[in-house]
Design goal:
- By secondary structure, the chain is mostly helical.
- Helices cover 77% and strands 0% of the residues.
- Helix 1 (2-28) packs antiparallel against helix 3 (64-84) and helix 5 (129-148) crosses helix 6 (158-173).
- The two termini are 24 Å apart.
């Protein structure tokens, strides 16, 4: 029973955390606000981010309210897992692990967005709003890689390099 509850709590927090991180990343990359995916992310996060924005204004493209919510969710996830499993951990450890979990979730989100973009590119047949949004939010990661490793014979290796780098970073932070 405890394993099932731990799984459920971690999964629910992770899902919402990824949506919040997607909102944060979409604003940083200036993705199309009117895209249906953007609208879903906005509507799913606005009930919590909206009130936070009343006292936490954005700093340039950085939505500080979304960033704060993401960090709180990461810390909440770790605190819930510690409590559910009856572990002993100090507040500082929970905060540090929560921040690392948030970073890991961000890297994981980028990983899956890149995978989905790569798979969709194989089957693309014209304009697709999901694919357009994926292109907008992955280009800031892929463009610098393409400057170093240009497409070779029509084969773009930037997605592969980005995926390897993201996985390396996730292993490095150890969460």
């Amino acid at each position: 029973m405890n394993n099932a509850l731990t799984f459920l709590v971690a999964t629910l927090i992770d899902l919402y955390l990824i949506i919040v991180l997607l909102r944060l990343w979409m604003q940083l990359t200036k993705a199309d606000f009117y895209n249906p995916v953007s609208q879903f992310v906005y509507k799913a996060t606005q009930p919590i981010v909206g009130p936070l924005r009343s006292f936490m204004p954005s700093v340039g493209s950085l939505d500080t309210a979304s960033l704060l919510l993401a960090l709180v969710l990461g810390i909440l996830k770790i605190a819930a897992l510690v409590w559910l499993n009856g572990l002993a951990a100090g507040a500082l450890v929970i905060v540090i692990q929560g921040v690392l979990a948030t970073i890991s979730s961000f890297l994981s989100m980028l990983f899956w967005v890149l995978i989905i973009r790569a798979i969709l590119s194989w089957f693309s047949q014209g304009y697709n709003p999901v694919e357009a949004m994926l292109h907008q939010i992955t280009e800031p990661v892929l463009a610098p890689i393409r400057k170093v490793i240009p497409p070779l014979g029509g084969l773009d290796l930037s997605v592969l390099v980005a995926i390897i780098a993201l996985q390396f970073l996730r292993i490095l932070i150890g969460v």
